[in-house]
Every structure is written in C-alpha cells, then in structure tokens.
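Form 7-S
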Amino acid sequence: MKPALVAISLFISVPYLAHSAEPELVFEDKLQGKFGVGWEWLPEDPKTWRHTDKGLEIRVEPGLAATVKNALVRKAPERQAGKFAIDVTIENTSPPTQQYEQAGITWYQGNKPVFKLVHELIDGKLYVIPGKKPAPSHLIQLRLVVTKDQYIAQYRSDAKGAFETAATGKLLPVPDEKVSIQCYNGPPNAEHWIRFKDFRVLKLAE
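Output:
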C-alpha cells in the first residue's frame, strides 16, 4: 500500500509544479492600430512611422544609437523584483543594404543606451548582435531576458521553434531604466521600413 500511495502523491504534484512555473504576463502590445499605455518617443518624427494592421512600421533612418529617431521607449521592469523577458518580433519589409543597418531592442539607463539586442546587416549578411549569430531570415523574434545583474540575449528565426541564446553578460542596475524598440543606420537615399509587432514583457520563474 505505501508504495502505491507514494506514486499517487508524486503524480498529483507534477501538474502543480508545472503550473507554478508558467510565465506571468506583465505587459503586452500587438502594436497594431494603436499603442498600449506607457510608451513615449525618444524623439518622434511623425513622418517616418505608421501603424498598419500587420504592426508598427518605422523607417530605418541614418544615424547611430545616440542620435536615433523614433525610438519607442517605455519603463523597464524592476529587475530587483525577479527575472523578466522582453519579446518583440521584427521584420525587414525590404532587404537591408546599408552596413550596420539594424533593428531590435535597446536598454537605456537614464537617457543613455547601454545595451542592444538587434538584427543587423554586417558585410552583406544578417546577424543577431551580441554574439554575431547568423540569422538570414527577414523575420525574427528577439527575447531579452534580464535579472538583477545579468542579461541573456535570445532569438528565433521566423518566430518559430525554441529560442536560441546568442550571448550572456553582466547588466548592473541603475535607478532609471527603460527599454525601447528602434532601428537605425538606414540608407540615406532609400526608404527601408521595419515592422514591429507582438511586444510583451513576461515575468519568468527563477
């Protein structure tokens, strides 16, 4: 009798443990038609972004991280409170041509960009940076996982399958942190647009 009782109790406990490990949805914005609460532009150029039924499209303009236009920014999750994932799906609506043309997630401390997870054109090929992982698909989902002192940069091509890890490292916290979706280093004489959709913030089990 005792072994049978033990087997039953283990069987009952497994679903409970699996359920308790489910991610908690903190924020979600499909970026279709209107914005969710909490976004702001840093800075805004209203002529070079647009909403569509497929997602938010932002023109990839010339410039660098410090001079980016139309960075869509919001308050970052409080990393002292746990482990979080920030997801976004991005798509090149036309093939990138400019060296270092890129789009993705940027982490700010104050108004200073300190870290990026992007899909970037380097010497004619597309990579996930950091880690310089080859990612030739024009549709990709990025996931930035942050804890109180670290980051994990992940991605999955075509937004399918398991996430792959591109890089990990230290990310020490400061009081005023923000996260953005943005694109830059675009060609000066062509209109390239990046489509962003399915932005969300999840609290993960530790």
